[in-house]
Amino acid sequence: EEENPLDKLPGPPRKPIVGCVFEFLNLTPRVMFKKMRLYSKVYGGRYLVKILRRRILHLHNVNDVEIVLSHPRNIKKSKPYSFLEGWLGTGLLLSSGAKWHRRRKILTPTFHFNILKNFTNVMEERSRGLVDKLKEYDGKEVNLMPVISDCTLYTICETAMGTQLDSDSSTKTQEYKTAILQIGGLLMGRLTRVWLHNEYIFRKFPMGKQFEKCLEKVHPFADNVIMERKKNWKPGQSNAGEDDVGGKKRLAMLDVLLEAERKGEIDLEGIREEVNTFMFEGHDTTAMALVFGLMLLADHPEVQERIYEECQTILGDSDTSPTMSDLAEMKYLEAVIKEILRLYPSVPFIAREVTEDFMLGDVLVKKGTEVSIHIYDLHRLPELYPDPEAFKPERFLNQQPTHPYAFVPFSAGPRNCIGQRFAMLEMKCMLSGVCRKFKLSPIVPGERPKLLADMVLRPVGPVCVKMHQR
Ligand code: HEM
């Protein structure tokens, strides 16, 4: 094998031929998460893991992260992403090259300011629904995950998809969410068993069969969303409505895709890929941020009070729903959300496959290398964030992080998160809604859940807080 400058980098012991395969064999997602944190402590912000012939460069140095993410050609996702193709196809998250460029161009306008403005009403309605649900737990403890993920799933369906999930779809909704959790577990199980990386072999093993069963749950759920919208949709009509200033009608996401289908620019399979992608990315990420966020707020009554006061100042004592410009004014809440995403970035790491040689500072990174960026570790570097474990929203108030790539929960560069403004708006709606009506307290002060990472960062076990109506 030809010499590779990356082989000089530190990293877990590399054996001939197999590399570090045995370091990861059969690890549970929880142990895997812990191991990756340990590696970043021991080997630093730039280290190499070799799995058979694959070289995986792990990074969390802020300057390295900038070089990789800002590089216009570093847009190809690494191999493990392909394990999700059976589910998400090559939709926006997984695709690359010309297909990705084309789809991103079609979908970008569907998250335009004017569209988000119209979505605020739906988000507000959902926020009220969440508050009503939480009232059932007044004075008691609530397990946040199921309540919050329902809320974000309904929100993405009613906004981007223009589909109302009716009340008798709740069993299907639960099955959908459970299947996603199982897919996460299977993804990690497959990652730590190299013999299952081959698609053909994977499909023959029990794990592959379980994956197939999960697909039988998630795919019909997304198909149903498409069929429902198709039933109620006429060309040119959209739930995003409202002409913008130029008189151009803006359509919500699924309507844009249906319109594109009508014009022969995308087929039904293409629509399914995007609906599956956005239904997942659009609800699970935001749900996790809200769950971790409410957990942190429960432990910080002073932060809850400041959010409450900010809402009072902007909205008064009344029950008024905030408009988009009210939400934009909530600067303290914005800093809180950023601090939540710093400590608990819903997507804790992202990865790329390098398609042409490039210099990472003084090291040559060759074509074919995979690069894994650990947002979680980057966000906890003491040189960027003094006292990194502490929850301090003031860090983001009236000041920005010291480096433009120090805070990248939505990634950065050409393949950043297309839904980031949507997510910020939704989180503002939900958190302001909850803080206006409740005080939260922790079950055990200072207690933090153990974490694991599959497609998103998750707590091991439930996250509970106590709710008290104001
Ligand atoms: C707190 C909430 C969210 C976080 C932290 C988050 C984070 C991210 C990150 C880090 C990426 C880059 C992934 C990669 O490079 O592999 C990404 C991509 C993406 N996100 Fe989000 N996201 C959030 C919410 C959303 C929402 C609400 C939507 C949809 C409405 C969404 C849709 C997407 C899509 C489609 C991509 C792929 C974009 C592309 O490759 O062009 N995300 N997100």
Strand order of the largest sheet: 1-2-7-4
Q: What radius of gyration results from the CA coordinates?
A: 22 Å
The helix/strand series, from N terminus to C terminus, equals HHEEHHHHEHHHHHHHHHHEEEEHHEEEE
Largest sheet data: 4 strands, mixed
- Shape descriptor reads globular
Low-confidence stretches: none
State the end-to-end CA separation. 67 Å
Task: Give helix % range.
Answer: 40-55%
Cofactors, ions, other ligands: protoporphyrin IX containing FE
pLDDT averaged over residues: 94
Instruction: Give the DSSP E fraction (strand runs of 2 or more residues).
Output: 5-15%
Count up the helices.
18
Backbone structural class: alpha+beta
Number of strands: 11
Tell me what the structure shows.
With 470 residues, the chain is α+β, with helices and mostly antiparallel strands. 49% of the residues lie in helices and 10% in strands. The chain has helices spanning 21-24, 29-43, 62-70, 85-88, 97-107, 113-135, 144-158, 170-191, 199-204, 206-232, 253-262, 268-281, 284-299, 301-315, 324-329, 331-343, 375-378, 420-437; strands spanning 46-51, 54-59, 141-143, 349-353, 358-360, 363-365, 370-374, 438-442, 451-453, 457-459, 464-469. Strands 1-2-7-4 form a 4-stranded mixed β-sheet. It has a 3-stranded antiparallel β-sheet with strand order 3-11-8. A two-stranded antiparallel ribbon has the order 5-6. A hairpin with a 3-residue loop joins strand 9 and strand 10. Helix 6 packs antiparallel against helix 7 (144-158) and helix 13 (284-299) crosses helix 16 (331-343). It binds protoporphyrin IX containing FE. Protoporphyrin IX containing FE is lined by residues 92-93, 104, 156, 160, 277-278, 281-282, 285-286, 289, 341, 345-347, 350, 409-411, 415, 417-419, 422-423.
